[in-house]
Amino acid sequence: MDTIIDSDLRRTYRISSFLVDERTRFIVQHKETFEPSISMSVYEQYLSLKRGSHNSVKDILDKLTYFFTWADDAKVDIETMLLNGLAPTPQQVRTFVYWLGERVSYEGRQANRIAPTTFNRIIEACSAMFTWFIMQYSVFNGAGNQHQVNREKVVESVKGLFKKNRKKVRQSKFADDLSEEEIATIEAYLKPSNRTDVDKDTAMRDYLVWRLAIEFGLRIGEILALRLKDCPYGKKNDISIVRIEERGRDYVDPRGANRPQPKTLSRDLGFLFANSPLPRLISDYISDNRCQYVIRAGKKKTLPITDHTFLIVNHWRKDGRPLSGSGMQRIAEKISRNTGIKFHWHIARHAFFNRTYQAVASNPDYKDGMMDLVYWGGWADEKSLQLYVNRARRERATKVLMFWQKGLTWDALK
Asked: For residues 322 and 224, is the Cβ–Cβ distance under 8 A?
């Protein structure tokens, strides 16, 4: 087993994914022995039933591998502790918090460091994990109500232990954005006619993904999950976002357990811009670029993709497979390197909603604008708009109010 060095983020546990009845499931294993964690398998089952998104389950399990790595290093039998519903001691919590705190960075992103906000999410995940196991497996003296009271006292004590060790963090309350100049720079770089660093099929795909992100504010999982029948064709003049559970029992994704899964609600979205190139771009990409290369009789031939119906494909190996999430990440990294802009795909979603929110908020005649925007984003309620509300207010404070005061003087401060 590797020794865990101070401020080193290497963990002794890993997460593997697999499919069960077309659902992505996870197993937590020790990296050296490959031995699975029984307690985490039990907890994963609970999380999979409770949460709709497998990405959320994986994120929670990933946070918990920090505690398991610490326990491994500190020779704490975490399996026995959890499966017997035992609470961690105050000393164990303090030691873990100190160990984790040594890996925190307050100076932005650094290698082998975690952000304070991530630190707090790890603490919260550990608290929730112990709470669940205590409620499920703990045994106390007494019967009936007394047993329940004793158990709840232990749970509250554990929650308090973890809560008081959270770091005070001033979280960002604004949705980050791209400036008009940055959007224009990315647009110019990705235009297929300007690309010289990739082949024409890849250039068309990258530009199509960019326009779907910036024109519709779609999440990457939503874009990667798009199928041909979700795109405009014939009299269908919109794009359909469909959750996996609504695809039916025959839904198959060759990406297996790593398949993308839209987190938002299903919805149909029309084109906002009259001059949008997207309808033509989608049509041209499907007919001219969405293909695979095969060798027949010693000659390379271009053939249509027939083994799946996903829109966005991987052009690197020319095998026609649907593009993966890591493939999308590599495209974002290339955009950053070649434009000098700190780019990630989700910032395109923010750029879209920052602008559409301001447009809706500034139109007093559009009474249903906010609810329409909630539908467009695939959210369940208006709470998810708060980041965009706050940014719009900040923009008004820094621009509109300054404009209002232009030419005014404050005699007392002369």
From this structure: yes
Comparison of pLDDT for 13 and 395, the residue scoring more: 13
Q: Is the sign of the CA dihedral 351, 315, 59, 57 positive or negative? A: positive
298: left (phi over 0), alpha (psi -120 to 50) or beta: left
pLDDT digits (tens, 9 = 90+) for 330-362: 999 999 999 999 999 999 998 898 888 888 888
Which residue's structure tokens are 């401020």? 7
DSSP helix/strand/coil, 119:
helix
Residue 5 has pLDDT above 50, yes or no: no
Which DSSP helix (H) or strand (E) runs through 153? helix 145-163
Query: Measured between alpha carbons, how far is 70 from 58 in angstroms, rounded to an integer?
Result: 19
Instruction: Please answer whether residues 24 and 48 qualify as being in contact, where contact means their C-beta atoms are separated by less than 8 angstroms.
Output: no
Burial of 178 by CB count in 10 Å (0-12 exposed, 13-18 middle, 19+ buried)? buried
Q: Which of 391, 184, 209 is nearest to 289 (CA)?
A: 209
Cα-based distances in Å from 307 to 246, 292, 310, 388: 21, 11, 9, 41
- Rounded to whole angstroms, the Cα distance separating 353 from 388 reads 7
**Quick check: 291 and 303 in contact, CB under 8 A?**
yes
What is the three-class DSSP state of 72?
Answer: helix
Task: Tell me the whole-structure pTM to 2 decimals.
Answer: 0.69
Backbone φ, ψ for residue 80 (5° rounding): -65, -40
Identify which of 107-121, 147-161, 165-179, 212-226 has the greatest average pLDDT: 212-226
Q: Where are the alpha helices (DSSP H) in 12-144?
A: 38-50, 54-74, 78-83, 90-101, 116-137
Give residue 126's pLDDT band: very low, low, confident or very high (50, 70, 90): very high
Distances (CA, A) of 394 to 173, 207, 258, 354, 398: 10, 31, 38, 11, 6
> What whole-number distance in Å separates Cα of residue 374 and Cα of residue 378?
6
Quote the CA–CA distance of 251 and 21 in Å, as a whole number.
11
Tell me how far apart the alpha carbons of residues 109 and 111 are, in angstroms, rounded to a whole number. 7
Give me the amino acid identity at 305. Answer: I
